[in-house]
From TrEMBL:
Keyword Magnesium: no
Protein name (record): Acidic leucine-rich nuclear phosphoprotein 32-related protein 2
InterPro entries: LRR_dom_sf
Gene3D superfamilies given in the database record: Ribonuclease Inhibitor
Amino acid sequence: AFFKLPSDSFKYLGWCDIEEHDVRGNQLHCPRVREGPSEEELFFRGEEHTLKKRKQVTDTEKWQKKLQENWENCAELNLSFQDLGDLYQLENFKRILQRLIRVEKLWLVDNSLTDLSALRLPRCRELNVNKNHFTSFKQLPKIPQIQHLSLAENNIMTLSGISDFRHTPLESLILKRNPCAFQERYRQLVFSSLPNLKMLDGIPKLPEDCSPPDIRAFFKMCTIL
């Protein structure tokens, strides 16, 4: 016998706001950023047939919705794999990031992000931005309290700007599968720029990592990624 997948019955339905519930944004472990386009956006995209009658939203209702999200009190958040295909999704995504003033652990894996330099995360201790499109350390957010930073599988070409983290409590850094990780004396260069760093790419600081970057050692090292 042929059975339809459970999702078939929902494939043509749209998302709706769930009214009269007590769930807040900081209680969600992996929320999805999916605020739809405005009526003007739909019109210019030629999708006005999808418009539905919408009640007029008052300023009080907008404020109540903002309080319901409660991003300001979120301490740990996973916003990975958001599939930000449209501009309105990216803008709403960044709007949420700007409200994360108390977040301590944040995951933003595989979101095609290119520049978050305008963002400040004052309490963030752990940030994972693996599998994005960053090309420079200058494109990262301001993270003065960062301890663990993961940047694997981006497109960071050089170590220029890494010394900006010298005055942070950064303990561990992951840069594997970035072009900068393949340059000569890579580990010595990183540890000379960040003397307080304890671990790089999952490997603790070794005695040979403390060698000055301008002195050639009498051994050869092969970094296996």
